[in-house]
Write a structure and sequence with these properties.
By secondary structure, this protein is mostly helical. The chain contains six helices and no strands. The longest helix has 35 residues, at 21-55. It is globular.
Length: 182
């Protein structure tokens, strides 16, 4: 065996100049939930003031509302590994998106503190699923030469989502909260 064969993983030559567009597209799609997670984080930072006023809750409840997503994300991440072994990485990413969607719908509806907390918990479980499985999925579908680039898309997506959340907070802060414009 020559040095060239050893350096490329035992003789399995890979096209270093080619870029797998399918793997890139899959990694981008898997990163979308990270953008939504970042957006949720950014938007909630601005929405907490209005939630406190609208639901008439105290500071402790606001803090618990903000932090519960991370606690539930831990639970989701612990469950996601076994789930992905059972149904596969791709379907686990889809499941994470569905869980996140259900939680977001509940948060959007949220007429009371209890329903809002339930939505945040469900969203947190979806976030835990996504943050656990999406990097694994991206790493598994990408080639060794592009693995670092495709797996870091998730981190970039979270930061982009937070930025979008803060920008939307800026523009939503200028809107009135009354129905009918007056």
């Amino acid at each position: 065996m020559s040095m060239d064969e050893l350096s490329d993983g035992g003789g399995e030559a890979e096209n270093l100049s080619g870029f797998n567009r399918y793997a890139c597209a899959c990694a981008i799609v898997a990163s979308m939930i990270s953008i939504i997670f970042g957006y949720d984080t950014g938007v909630m930072s601005g929405a907490m003031i209005f939630i406190k006023e609208d639901l008439k809750i105290n500071d402790t409840q606001v803090e618990f509302l903000a932090g519960i997503l991370n606690i539930c994300a831990l639970v989701g991440a612990l469950i996601a590994g076994r789930t992905s072994d059972y149904i596969g990485r791709r379907y686990t990413v889809v499941l994470a998106s569905v869980i996140f969607l259900l939680g977001s719908v509940l948060m959007g509806y949220g007429p009371s503190y209890a329903i809002l907390m339930t939505g945040r918990c469900i969203t947190g479980i979806g976030v835990g699923f996504a943050l656990m499985i999406a990097p694994v999925y991206s790493a598994e579908i990408s080639s060794a030469t592009h693995q670092g680039f495709l797996t870091c898309l998730l981190d970039i997506a979270i930061s982009l989502g937070i930025l979008l959340g803060y920008v939307s907070n800026y523009f939503f802060a200028k809107l009135t909260l009354s129905w009918g414009g007056g």
